[in-house]
Write a structure and sequence with these properties.
11 helices; 6 strands
Amino acid sequence: MLNYVWISLLAIGILTAVGKDVADEFSNPYRNGRAVEIAIEDARPLSADRTSWEATLSLKAEAFSAFYGVSAPTEAVRTPVRIILREEGKRLVLTPVEGTPELWKKMSTLGMTKGQLGGTLTSVRADAGVPVGAAVEFEAIRFVKLRAVTQAALDFANTAVEISLGLIGIMALWLGLIKVAEAAGFVTLLTKALRPITTRLFPDVPHDHPAVGAMIMNISANMLGLSNAATPMGLKAMEELNKLNPKAGTATNAMCTFLAINTGGLILIPATAIAVRAAAGSANPGIIIGTSIVGAGLATIAGVLAAKFFQRLRMFRVED
């Protein structure tokens, strides 16, 4: 079912992006295929043959507003450019700076070269061999939304792979530690010590079942703020609980209660949050310990009570 949800969301995203891009083709907000008259000031040659120049592009605010159909800047547009005047083609390269209009900054991120906006010069005017004006047609900007959706899909696919590979080491380490703890009898001792609590929380699970030990280790890791370390033990606990499930594909009371405890986030030392606060330069990163304990404790109690309440209702019961 979840696969259908993801496919539907992806299809909706693509169709929405295509629709917006088609609308942009009609409204043409980037003025593809149209040239705007500009003034060229302070031109300085960069080559001996005077085919490459550094200059300042100047455009009146009213002209910019009229051409792009946006609100006029408060003053004339002035931004540095590099101009290339060769027989095979006259080009302009605009690198955005602080005073560059936001529209041109956005176009520079969508063009062929990231961070630069290229254009073709026509009707170049010169004074004593120095360019002083021209008509510039900036490179075409198309399929903006569709490219954004595609790039986001690739970026998050890469993120998913990085997260999955990162969990391999953690899962191998903690599953190995669980095996060592089981062989040493530590899990058995801890299970016996917490038996009065586990038997009341999970009455359907035998007190000596491996699921109890995995759940205890998972909850302990979460209480210490080691959420990544708790993940493999939580998966192991669900796997063991599923072995006691008389109806495959349906969550048991024990599974729901265990999930409620995990969702509540019962914690004693929020190690991850403290580390993030310390990295951000907090003067007292550990000040959140008290509020985290109270908030997570109340949330866990509420979750467990809700799970116990709903499992007593007939509408939530599944007959064998």
